[in-house]
Amino acid sequence: MALTIRQINTTKPSTKIISLSDGLGLELRIWPDGRRGWRLRYTRPNGKRNMTSLGIYPEVSLAEAREKRADIRRQLSQGIDPVEQKQSDKRQQQYTTQNTFKVLAMEWHAAMVPRWKKSSKRANDSKRVLEMYVFPKVGDRAIETILPLEWLEMLRGLEDAGKFEQRRRLHAFCRDIYRFAIITGRASYNPLTDLNTALKPYKKSSFDHIPQEELPELVRNIEAYDKSPMVRVGLKLLLLTAVRPGELRKAAWAEFDLKAAVWKIPAERMKMGKAHQVPLPTQAIDALRYLHTLTGPFKLLFPGRNDPRKPLSDAAFGMALKRMGYEGRHVPHGTRHVVATGLKELGYPREWIELQLSHKLPGIEGVYTHAQHMAPDQRPAMMQFWADYLEKIGTRLE
């Protein structure tokens, strides 16, 4: 006979477990301590008998217990073992939770950080790009549920905004995350691999820079810049050393040996993650000594206006060039192009110029060549000649 609510509520606990049957394998067990719970006896598809819990009464009512019994009997009629199905659902839930794109992305990031040779720039850049463009959209999704079309829409969104360089980096990072997921057995397909065919081709352009014939005027304009002596010296040093603007802005006085005429930039501040030696011509040393009278008490050559423990704003050099009339024609990073072109036209060896720019030499040459070309008659002589050349075509760089 089927159970009734009255029968359940009036049955008192005994010294032994009491079982009240509702038929079709469903029963309510009442323990001596007063606990009541639903149990279902059934025969598995393999012919073996089994019993499973359906919850505690009254949290699971009589009607709900009957619904669960009906669901299990429906599964059995289809040849599905309810216990195995429950375990499979649990595994799937665990898989979904532990294999979201964000979880895998952070595992990949942690694995890659040691390979980036102590350079925090790439580590920070990859994480920032993912946090900006990917995590808010699909970060909590299981990685294999994200469709190729969704990735295409994300990348095309950056295209439409003109952010081609960010699109390139995002594509590369996410493609590598899928490779990591496949290697670790948590994905079987990489939807980022073939997306290039559906994206607009993009060739990275060089930074805006003036032609060589305008170099004398640039030198004179820098010398005449009177808005900030510190920025004026910074623009001079970019021309005299060909370093990246960020490397100069974040430079510390402890990195300079003016007697030896060398600036040693530590690996953690370099784009390639490798320490870099910069020969200093006499004009650069003069400029540094003048700068020391302005910022010598601070750790940084170019301390920030509001917080001297932080470097000068990355917009400072660019703003100065705009004020000189170079907006859209020349940017601080473009100075490296000007110096490289000038040195090539003066006939200096390619490897000396590439090393001055802290570029890795291409191909096998880059693998086996470790010379710094810091002998007095090599890069130091080249940069001294360049400084003298600037002095000759413009005005003295003090």
UniProtKB/TrEMBL annotation:
Question: What organism does the record attribute this protein to?
Answer: Vreelandella songnenensis
A GO biological process of this protein is: DNA recombination
Domain Tyr recombinase spans what residues? 205-383
GO molecular-function terms, A-Z: DNA binding
Q: What's the superkingdom here?
A: Bacteria
Q: Which UniProt keywords apply?
A: DNA integration, DNA recombination, DNA-binding
Family of this protein: Belongs to the 'phage' integrase family.
Under Gene3D superfamilies, the record lists: 1.10.150.130, Integrase, DNA-binding domain, Intergrase catalytic core
- Report what the protein is called: Integrase
